[in-house]
Amino acid sequence: MTDKRLLTIGEVLVEIVATTKGDGFRAAQPLIGPFPSGAPAIFVDQAARIGAEAAIISRVGADDFGKVNLDRLAADGVDISGIAVADDGAPTGSAFVRYRGDGSRAFVFNIAHSACGQLELTREAEAVIERCSHIHVMGTALSAPGLSHLIKAAIVRIKGQGGTLSFDPNLRPEILDTPGLRSALGEILAQTDVFLPSGDEIFLFTEAQDEAGAVKDLLARGIPEIVLKRGAKGASHFCAAGRTDVAPLAVEEIDPTGAGDCFGGAFVGMWLMGHPVEEALAYANAAGAHAVTRVGPMEGTATRAELDQFMKDRTR
Ligand code: ATP
Ligand code: MG
User: Fold this and answer.
1) How far apart are CA 125 and CA 50, in angstroms?
2) CATH for 5-313?
3) Which residues belong to any copy of the Carbohydrate kinase PfkB domain (predicted)?
4) Which ligand lies nearest the alpha carbon of 231?
5) Whether pLDDT at 316 is above 80
6) Who lines ligand 1 at CB under 6 A?
7) Which residue, by CA, sits nearest to atom 11 of ligand 1?
8) Structure confidence at residue 174 (pLDDT)
9) Residue closest to 119 by CA, chosen among 94, 156, 86
10) Residue closest by Cα to atom 7 of ligand 1
11) Which residue from 228, 227, 154 is spatially nearest to 191, judged by alpha carbons?
């Protein structure tokens, strides 16, 4: 059997990080970056690094921030033929991030008005969709109207030709009030083969009051596999055959941004390459833990050999 090819669609950005903790950006301060970023970009980079065939559809500006991303993704083995370079002067998206003392984050975003805010179905993007047999949907990408439309069209095509779908809501319940977002997410969930919620996101689509009830409800509604991310507490996989847990690896958390995306990219990548659940879960858990040890959202992606070593170093 040939490997299945994975596609994701969504934002490609640079992230610029304040080197000190504090409340936002109201004074001049030291910064480090640009780092390649964007949840779908981090996901697809990790999937490619673990060995999966992986592509992304996005749009960047004709500028250095775009080049930083294109170069990194290509070097890590991602098919970037579906990333358009804007010819209308739109810049690459960006996010400035500063951590507060309590671990929360202050952001200044330029995404909606950046190159990836005006994503269109180009001929190259269409060719990529044609080649792919799996689509990964990031909930965050669905809040942009143009993007949402494109993602839905790609789902129809890929599921229509017998492909599969994974879905990471990547949304905290507070921001679900965007008009139309909850119903768009519900439509995606109904077609999901692997659902990857994080923490309380397991309750986004169920009335159940506890985790076991939520899992039971979602499985009964026909979602074959659920992978629950538990941050520093590890992760669990649920399906009709039962439950599989993985204990967290002991790491020093330097920068938690991107852990969930690396976890997802590793899990879905391994799953598509046909590895058993226990193995996919172990690598995903290691990829998430590895990600938090590095500054910069995409800096923590890792190859399978690197993750083997990382696990070995922590289980002796
Ligand atoms: P994001 O902020 O990127 O959206 P998330 O909330 O989706 O992250 P997390 O649950 O924070 O995802 O992290 C994903 C996985 O990474 C966890 O389930 C776990 O396997 C691993 N992980 C994350 N943080 C840690 C940590 N501090 N120690 C060990 N493992 C971790
Ligand atoms: Mg997440």
Assistant:
1) 23
2) 3.40.1190.20
3) 4-300
4) 1
5) no
6) 170, 198, 229-232, 234-235, 248-249, 251, 253, 256-261, 263, 285, 288-289, 292
7) 231
8) 66
9) 86
10) 260
11) 154
Strand partners for 36: 14
Domain boundaries, the chain: 5-313
**Best mutation site among 138, 226, 229, 268 for ligand 1 pocket (most ligand atoms within 8 Å of CB):** 229
CB 40 within 8 A of CB 8: yes
- Pairing relation of β-strands 242-246 and 225-229? unpaired
Q: Residue 221 gets which letter from DSSP?
A: T
pLDDT at 140 over 90: no
| Ligand 1 centroid – CA 62 distance (Å) | 33
User: Best substitution site from 292, 294, 310 to test ligand 1's pocket, by max atoms within 8 Å of Cβ?
Assistant: 292
The span from the CA of 215 to the CA of 299, in Å, is 33
- Cβ neighbour number for residue 17 with a 10 Å cutoff: 22
What whole-number distance in Å separates Cα of residue 280 and Cα of residue 310?
Answer: 15
Residue located via tokens 């679900």: 176
Residues 241-259 pLDDT 10s: 999 999 999 999 998 889 9
Q: What is the mean pLDDT of the chain?
A: 94
Find residue 180's DSSP bridge partners.
none
